[in-house]
Specification:
- By secondary structure, the protein is of the alpha/beta class.
- The protein has 2 domains: 181 residues, Rossmann fold (3-Layer(aba) Sandwich), CATH 3.40.50; 73 residues, no CATH class.
- The chain contains 10 helices and 12 strands.
- The strands form 3 sheets. Strands 3-2-1-4-5-7-9 form a 7-stranded parallel sheet, with helices on both faces. Strands 10-11-12 form a 3-stranded parallel sheet, with helices on both faces. A two-stranded antiparallel ribbon has the order 6-8.
- The mean pLDDT is 86.
C-alpha cells in the first residue's frame, strides 16, 4: 500500500512517524513533516515549514484548485507537492492531525485516517476538568478546523492501563509503539535535580508520547517534566496524572521543590491491563 504520513509540528510526532515506518514493513510510506526534530526521520519527502502563509492572497488555494475550503498556503509550493503526490498515487493518508496532509486526502478523494496523541484532547470521555493550559487553545482550534476523517485513532498508552478512560463515539484506541526506555530525554533539561528527588528505580521523561510509552510499558514509576510551551507534553502530563499513571513534576529548579512535587501524589499505578488494542500497522490489513 502507498501511504502518505502527515507528521505534526510538535516534538514527538516525528518519533511516532519513524516508529510507524520501522514497523509497517512492505508498505511504501512517504512523509510530509516539519524540519523540527528531523533527526528521528531518515527522510522528509515534503518539508512543510515554508508552506503555510499569512498572505491574504494565499487564502483560497484549496477552494480555487480543489473546491474545498482550506488553510492559507503558498500556491506554487502546494502545486508542486500535490502534483508529486498525484504522480505517485497514494492509497491512504494517515495524519497526525496535520492540516495539509488531511487536505491532500480530501483534494485527491482518498481515505483519511487521523492517528494522534492530540486526539486525547477531544476523544476521551472523562469526568475531570478540562485542561486549561494556554497551549491547548491553539490545539483545540486546530482539531476543530480539520476536515472530516474516515478514522480517528487515539494514539496513547492510556488504552492499556487498568481503569482506562472511555472514548467518545467515533474514536478508537491504537496502541503506541514502545522501545526499552533510555535515561536521557529528548530535550536538554537538567535531569540531575529530578533524579535525586524521586524514588529510586523511577523513570523521568519530558512527555512526548513515544517516550512516555517507553516508560509505561517498562512498568516502572514515571515522572513527567513537561515544557509548558509544548502541547503534546502538557497534554500527556496532565492526563497521565489524572489517571494515576504518572506524576506531573513540572520543571523543578531545586531539589527541595522536586521532593515536594514527588511526594504530592502517590506513586503512579504501573499495572497494565493490556486490552488487546492493535498497533497502527496492524490496522492496514
Amino acid at each position: 500500500m502507498k501511504i502518505l504520513f502527515g507528521s505534526g509540528n510538535f516534538i514527538g510526532s516525528n518519533i511516532m512517524c519513524s516508529r510507524f515506518i520501522k514497523n509497517a514493513i512492505g508498505h511504501d510510506i512517504r512523509v510530509t513533516a516539519y524540519y523540527r526534530n528531523h533527526r528521528y526521520l531518515h527522510c522528509i519527502d515534503w518539508c512543510l515549514d515554508a508552506l503555510y502563509s499569512t498572505n491574504i492572497g494565499d487564502a483560497n488555494y484549496f477552494k480555487e484548485r480543489h473546491g474545498i475550503p482550506g488553510p492559507y498556503v503558498n500556491h506554487e509550493m502546494s502545486d508542486l507537492i500535490i502534483n508529486d503526490l498525484l504522480e505517485w498515487g497514494p492509497n491512504l493518508v494517515i495524519s497526525d492531525c496535520e492540516m495539509f496532509s488531511a487536505m491532500v486526502a480530501k483534494a485527491m478523494d482518498i481515505p483519511l485516517w487521523y492517528c494522534s496523541p492530540m486526539l486525547q484532547l477531544n476523544g476521551i470521555e472523562h469526568e475531570h476538568n478540562e485542561i486549561k493550559a494556554k497551549t491547548m487553545k491553539s490545539v483545540q482550534y486546530m482539531l476543530n478546523s480539520l476536515p472530516e476523517g474516515d478514522k480517528y485513532l487515539v494514539y496513547s498508552p492510556l488504552c492499556d492501563i487498568a481503569g482506562r478512560p472511555f472514548l467518545k463515539t467515533g474514536f478508537e484506541w491504537v496502541r503506541p509503539y514502545s522501545e526499552p526506555p533510555n535515561e536521557i530525554t529528548s530535550e536538554n533539561i537538567d535531569t540531575s535535580i529530578i533524579s535525586k528527588g524521586i524514588p529510586e528505580g523511577s523513570l523521568v521523561c519530558t512527555g512526548e508520547t513515544s517516550l512516555v510509552s517507553d516508560c509505561i510499558y517498562a512498568e516502572k514509576p514515571l515522572f513527567i517534566s513537561p515544557n509548558p510551551q509544548e502541547s503534546e507534553q502538557v497534554l500527556n502530563a496532565q492526563l497521565l496524572e489524572w489517571y494515576r499513571v504518572a506524576v506531573n513534576i513540572g520543571r523543578p529548579k531545586s531539589l527541595s521543590f522536586t521532593k515536594r512535587q514527588a511526594e504530592r501524589l502517590p506513586l503512579p499505578n504501573t499495572k497494565l491491563s493490556k486490552q488487546g488494542f492493535g498497533f497502527l500497522d496492524e490496522r492496514l490489513v
